[in-house]
Amino acid sequence: MLGLCAGEIVRVRSEAEILATLDARGEIDGLPFMPEMRRYCGLTFRVHRRADKTCDTITGSLGARRLRDAVHLENLRCNGADHGGCEAACLIFWKEAWLERTQPPARGLLQPLVRPLLDGRTRIPATNAQTCTREDVERAAHGPAGENGEPTWRCQITQLLEATTPLSPRDSLQYLRDWVGGNVSLGMLLKIGVLRLLARFVWGRGFRLKVRGYDAVARAFGQSPWPFHPGTGAGPAPNERLDLKPGDWVEVKSHAEILATLRGRNHRGLSFAPEMVRYCGGTYRVRARVEKILDEGSGRMVHMKNDCIVLEDVVCQSECSRGRLFCPRAIYPYWREIWLRRAVGGPPAAPSSSESAGRGAARSESASAITSAESA
After folding, report:
1. What is the pLDDT of residues 138-176, one digit of tens each?
2. For the chain, first and last CA: distance in Å?
3. Cα distance between residue 342 and residue 362, in whole Å
């Protein structure tokens, strides 16, 4: 395989070349090539991050899963056109077999270390008379009929358990891969490592004092303060309507203001995840209102009953998510309108902690909204 690193320029192979790598289900090692990906064939893109791991948003464990020979390309997200109009806008996984370099790989002192870490073991079917066809790929996007005959779909995320293996948070090699593959700088790796180690000792006696100590270190590192506070609200969850539309500028309320709307860690079935704390106080543009997404476990379409807002450049960085640090999936967090206010006088700069998170586009730990969307 190619052993690609973040920042490299690649070309997506032609549709015929990609089809020749797929089995009868339109997959490599359980990972589907989706119809929405076809329009990118022949085009050139930059590697955003290696996809050596991802998060399990299917079983509810929210643990880490191991992939091989896969990357994410910059800003290439699924538009859901062939999956019932799903609006999750997931970052697409690309197997290296579907890509080709446009220039020789960089050579350096770390190259002997990088190759063994990044070379995988994808099993590519031999090209033969039973090569997968475009119709096979389109057919594979549809799952069996659900209860009451409702349609279901298959996509890269619904099939993620088949395309991955469990990854223990104690597997330290994953963080070395994060670094040598270019996903995370050594400085960020060390900063987050220190904060996650400190977080282990915060719970228990002297909690408030230890939180202040944690916040002081986080401030010095340019990171968000203690992100695990539970909600402080009582009684029925409050609601607020802003009637936000794509393109509107909003300010994310302070962490304390948002906590006052939560019961536990939820507001009307939607969780406020620790990864979202870094964006509190920042100003962002509304990307979309999300009204329907695929349930990742069953493949059926789930319709949101309450407001779910997605903001541009606001993604899960997986820097305080237990068991899945540095997941590169860049999921979009969903925001309630009550957690936002309309920005007055234009878009001021976002907080430095969110700027350091990197720009990208994509749903967070709030993927729990999928399973709880019936109440959301």
Report:
1. 999 999 987 788 999 999 999 999 999 999 988 989 999
2. 43
3. 21
Dist CA 320 CA 307 (whole Å): 26
Please state the pTM of the whole predicted model.
0.86
Q: Please give the average per-residue pLDDT across 283-300, as a whole number.
A: 95
Q: Which of 320, 50, 46, 322 shows the shortest CA–CA distance to 184?
A: 50
Q: Does pLDDT of 366 surpass 50?
A: no
CA distances, 69 to each of 97, 110, 356 (Å) = 8, 19, 27
Residue 341, phi then psi, degrees to nearest 5: -140, 150
CB of 332 closer than 8 Å to CB of 275: no
Burial zone of 184 (CB within 10 Å; 0-12 exposed, 13-18 middle, 19+ buried): buried
Between CA 188 and CA 177 the distance in angstroms is: 14
Q: Spell 284-298 as b/e; 16+ CB within 10 A means b.
A: bebbbbbebbbbbeb
- Partnered with residue 54 across adjacent β-strands are 65
Measured CA to CA, the distance from residue 69 to residue 50 in angstroms comes to: 8
Start-end of H helices in the chain:
15-19, 111-118, 134-140, 160-163, 173-180, 186-200, 207-221, 255-259, 352-355, 368-371
- Per the listing, tokens 């930059």 go with 46
With the CA atoms of 49, 50, 53 and 55 taken in that order, what torsion angle do they form, in degrees rounded to the nearest 10?
Answer: 20
Q: Which of 298, 301, 295, 286 is nearest to 332 (CA)?
A: 286
